[in-house]
Amino acid sequence: MCGIVGYIGNQKVSGILLNGLKRMEYRGYDSAGVSILTDGSIETIKKSGKVAQLEKLVDHTQFDSTIGIAHTRWATHGEPNDINAHPHHDSSNKISIVHNGIIENYAILKKNLIEKGYTFRSDTDSEVLAVLIGALYDRVKNMEEAVRYALNEVEGTYGLCVLSVYEPDKIIAARRGSPMVLGIGEGEYIVASDAAAIIQHTRQVIYLSDNEMAILTRDGYETKTIKNEKTTNTIHEIEFDLEQIEKAGFPHFMLKEIFEQPDTFRDSFRGRLLADKGNVKLGGLTQAEEQLRKAKRILITACGTSWHSALVGEYIIENLAQIPVEVEYASEFRYRNTPLYPDDIVIAISQSGETADTLAAVYETKQKGATAIGIVNVVGSSIARSTDAGIYIHAGPEIGVASTKAFTSQICVLALIGLYLGRMKNLSQSDGKRIGAAMLEIPNQIEQILNKSDEIKAMAKKFTKSRNFLYLGRGYNFPVALEGALKMKEISYIHAEGYPAAEMKHGPIALIDDNMPVVFIATKDEIYEKVISNIQEVRARRGKVIAIASEGDNDITNYADHVIYIPNTVPMLTPVLAVIPLQLMAYYMAVELGCNVDQPRNLAKSVTVE
Ligand code: M6R
Hints:
Layout: E1 3-8, H1 13-23, E2 31-38, E3 41-48, H2 51-57, E4 67-73, E5 88-89, E6 95-100, H3 106-115, H4 125-140, H5 143-153, E7 158-164, E8 170-176, E9 181-184, E10 189-192, E11 204-207, E12 212-217, E13 220-225, E14 236-237, H6 253-259, H7 261-269, E15 273-274, E16 279-280, H8 289-294, E17 298-302, H9 304-321, E18 325-329, H10 330-333, E19 345-350, H11 356-367, E20 371-376, H12 382-386, E21 389-392, H13 405-424, H14 429-450, H15 453-461, E22 468-473, H16 478-492, E23 495-500, E24 517-522, H17 528-539, E25 544-550, E26 562-566, H18 574-592
Parallel strand pairs: 17-18, 17-19, 19-20, 20-21, 22-23, 22-24, 24-25, 25-26
Antiparallel strand pairs: 1-4, 1-10, 2-3, 2-4, 5-6, 6-7, 7-8, 8-12, 9-10, 9-11, 11-14, 12-13, 15-16
Helix pairs in contact: 3-4, 4-5, 7-13, 7-14, 9-13, 9-16, 13-14, 13-18, 14-18, 15-18, 16-18
């Protein structure tokens, strides 16, 4: 949700900033802009649209400067036009800022500043912060103080970089609620919303905390709270490699990430699954072991795709550990005064680790004295740092806005937690071994499905004229139906609904006619026959049936117009296999329709606003 980057060092800055923006474009692509300090003034170039549009306007030969800031926007306040694009300046054009977040009290601040004679150009909340810093500078004549005073006046969230002609060899960065990572290089500092913009320069990073500022000069950096107390930070090493954030020959990140799943699933259980013992070793849960042992109830909270994996987790944990599990959207959890007790465990699932609602749910959990556990992909992210214990899914950077490999890795980790809790309770070793053995098979089984991508592509092509899809599944496959529908709508803009298959007759069946494709996840399990009955109900109304079925199930061809077979596994791991054809189907459909798969309209990868 907006990507920001600032650089001060010994290299020409314009290319560095544009490159940084490209690496973070998945965070928002409504507009982009740079401010470069050159010959005592700030040169700002900004444009609605993608970074590529901005790049056409930046003449690198024009700038020798080695200091600047830049922004790629996901619009909240003000439409995505050139004027509302960041960077924003103060009234006298001496200060430039890039901001990620929302200034909630911007209206009253703006009114007060206008009354004092300050002027505005845009409709954004961010410009208010720029003008406020300018107004405070007029009073205190010190940039650090002006920024600090401003940050104490604003309500809301910010990841922020500030550049000024007053103190030309300085960038001030700050964070509250929006991520900021500071890269410490050789004679250079680069600060950004995401380590992806930093790794080309250095692997040494500091994750700023909420209400913390970093003051970067050519001689060094210092960090302080916005109350002016000095802070010390641990320097971390970025764990991923540059290749992992490149397309590696694939036309889109989404396709690359779909094809990475044999490896990413394996990485999620590597070193944790003790298949021959029917058990697991989860170092990340050690601190919460006692609470987990006595937990009477588990709540899982998340948004979007992560919420779908939470639903799978509910079924897995209840089945293996016989502990009641509830799943709740984080956006609902945080505002409805959910009763929580010290013996409760709340598991927050998030790929980015920055989703505002999920983070707020973690804070709420801790405030009410329950134990918060994170299942997160991005190392060092806000959720990872605010939970009491947690497990990284180790799926590597996920750049495509449509989440794919994170989903399968989240289920992997939830299955590990299920085994962990199950073996703590009554799950037998032989059952643990059976599940462990099935898990070891999954990477090869995903590979087998990926080998059918041409078949899935050909099938997708047949449905490009369909404007609606229904996805149906039961048991473990119900969340897969939801996830398949979400993938379809978010990247191809085709309306799709996921439902528990048996619920169809309580309403959605009215939609079915010979134009309606219905995707059934109909794998061989204990409710297979029931799903076949639901298929018959669709067939009777001339709906077109696409079935995701278990290898060896020849009968299903009697009921379905198209069948994609997936290998057999234990029911609780079926979602990991069943989702792969649905990811591919949505992908090929979107490509066929000419949609921008990696950057679907109106979306952003990490949703750091409410
Ligand atoms: O980073 P998170 O897992 O917390 O993100 C949650 C959702 O925003 C995310 O899953 C979103 O729904 C994706 N676009 C789905 O593909």
